[in-house]
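Reading a protein record of the kind used here takes only a little practice. The record below shows the convention in full:
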Amino acid sequence: MPAMPPIITSLLDTDLYKFTMLQVVLHQFPAAHGEYAFKCRNTPQRPLSSLKNELEAQLDALCALHFTQDELGYLRSLRFIKSDFVDYLELFHLQRRFIRVTEQGEELLVSIKGPMIQAMFFEIFVLAIVNELYFQPLDNSAVRAEGQHRLQEKIARLQAFSQTERPAGHGPLLLSDFGTRRRFSRDWHAHVVASLHREVPDIFRGTSNVYLAWQLGITPIGTMAHEFFQAFQALGVRLRDFQKAALEAWVQEYRGDLGIALTDVVGMDAFLADFDLYFAKLFDGLRHDSGDPYLWGEKAIAHYQALRIPPHSKMLVFSDALNVDKALALHQHFSERIQVSFGIGTNFSNDMGLTPLQIVLKLVSCNGQPVAKLSDSPGKTMPTDATFLAYLRQVFGIRE
C-alpha cells in the first residue's frame, strides 16, 4: 500500500499530447521501442533519492489503473480521437515491468524501457507523482495562503488587461494551463484551473490536462512533444529528413486537426528549412519552447511572409517558462501581426513561494539507437550519446 493515498486516480490525469502522440504511434509505428531517462535540472532542497520507496508504491498503484467507460466516452467525443484507438485504450493499462526506479547518492534515477505504446505514457504521471511526493511535507496553510495570494494577483492582472488595457488593433489574449508535470499537488492544480476558468473565461482557453478539461467542460489543449520528432531519428528515414517525416506522419493522421507544430528539436533555423510551403499551409501555427521568444517569433513571421502566407492567418503558441507578465509583453509585441496564445505551466500550477523542481523525463533512444534534442536553449539539451550529438549537429549545420 502507498504511504499516502494514490496521487494518480485517473489515466486521463495527463496531458492531451500523450494521447495524440500515442494514437500516431499505435497506427504508424506500433512496434517501436523507446527508452526514457529522468533528470532534475536544478538542485532540490532535499535529496530526491529519499522519494524512492514512496515512488515505487505510487507506481504500483498507477499500473493498476484502467480507463473507465465514462472516461472512454469522453475520449470518443473528441473529434480527432479515432474509434479504434479508444478500443485499444479500453484494454490498456501501464505495465510495471517497463519502469525501474533506483538511486545514486542523492539522485533519483528513473528508467523506462519498453514499447513506445507503453513507455511514452508514463512521463507525465511520473513527473506529477515526484512533484507531489517532494512537496507534500512542505504543504501547509501558510504555503497555500501564499499560493492563493499569488493566484489572485495573476487573476487581477488579467482582469485589468481584459477590461481596460488591451490595445486597439491587437488580437485577443489567450492563455492555457500547461502545468500538470510540475504541479504542487493534484488538488491545487484543479483549484488553479477552476479559478482561472471561472474568473477570466474570456482569456483562459483551456488546459493540457485531459481529466480537468473533462471535469470542467473546457477545451483540452495540446498536439505533440519533442519525443514524437525524436523518434523519427531512428525510424528508418534519412536523418536529414526526420522532421519532414514526423510532420508528414502527423498530417496523415490528423488531416487538418491539431495543427500546431513544435519547432525546437534541432533548433528553429533547421526547422524552418524543412517547414516549406506545403507544411506551412497545412499547419495552423508553431509552438515555441526554448530560446529567445522574440527572435523566434520574428523568424516565424518572416518565414510566413517569404512564403506569401499572411501571418494573420497563423498562430504562434509560446510555452517556455512563461508567467503572466511575460505573456502580456509577448502579446503586446506580436498580436497586431499574427495570432498568439500562451501555455503557462509551473507559474500557474506551482507558484507557492517555494522553489519548483525542474524535472524532465526524456526519450533518449528509439529502436536501440540514440536520439536527441538540440534545443534553442543549450541547457535543455538532454545528455545522450556524444557521437550521435556530434553527427546530428553536423547534419543540420549546428555549432555547439
Q: What stands out?
A: The radius of gyration is 20 Å. The chain has a mean pLDDT of 95. Residues 138-222+268-349 form a domain with the nicotinate phosphoribosyltransferase fold (CATH 3.20.140.10). The CA atoms of residues 76 and 217 lie 15 Å apart.
